[in-house]
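Structure tokens please, single chain.
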Amino acid sequence: PRGNVGSAVIATLLKEEGRFHITALTQSSSTYAPPSDSVKVIITDFESSVSLVAALQGQDALLCCVPGGATKYAAQKVLIDAAIEAEVKLFFASEFVADILSPHYRIFPTELVGDKVKTREYLQEKAKAGEIAWTALNGGPFFDMWLKHGFAGFDIPARRASIYGTGNNLACWTPLPIIATAVANMLHKPLANLNRGILISGVQNLTQNNLLAALEAEMGEKFSVDYIDVRKIKSDAMEKLEKGEWKAAARGLTISAQFNDEEGSANFWHLVENEGVGVQAVDVREAVREYLLWQKLK
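Here you go.
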């Protein structure tokens, strides 16, 4: 509950006072402190089906927010099976990435992205058997987190930009507040999205060049720009991956997936269902402005 998605979703659900009864499941080693007394915290042994079933009694939905590579199939299977035994109606899978059915996504090693595909397949099997319903949400990289941690190619304090390839590759990214709003709306009306994954995108016309223009306009300063061969980044990463060096390959694979005009997987606008989950994409400059205000950079 303390990660990027969990924190954002809980904050959004708490705005609708009394509509949701929120329970956070944590490990005994966790130092998690809920943002409100209305959030119930249950210390749980995630390796014990008995402990999980007890914690899940009386819950209508289970939202799983395990991050990235920590989404291991064995642990997810235990959680799903416990939810079924506790008669939880809806399992909201921990995906929150891009289109996991894309062949580009499947290049990524599970050590990096987790067993999201295998977990979805298991949920589909259980849903087909009528044991539980499921849903999932994917909006590409978190816009605000990618700007904050430099993955987008911008060092804002130093006014520097790294443009990969042409800088014109269209990408689907979503700010965390929009992700959280979509999750809340999906929980409000679960029947509309049962047993399938939903794709959204939170920023219109998002390219690195448009991001650069928006940052310069909002900051009132020009950035120094380095142009980088994204195809070489991809080939170097694939070479490392073939050697089993997945940690060394991770950054290159991620950059290529988002910024490679020829072989990227960042543009899934043709699959986006923003309206169905009650969210709207904002323009690049508005997204940048909101980020700068959040970070007190403006």
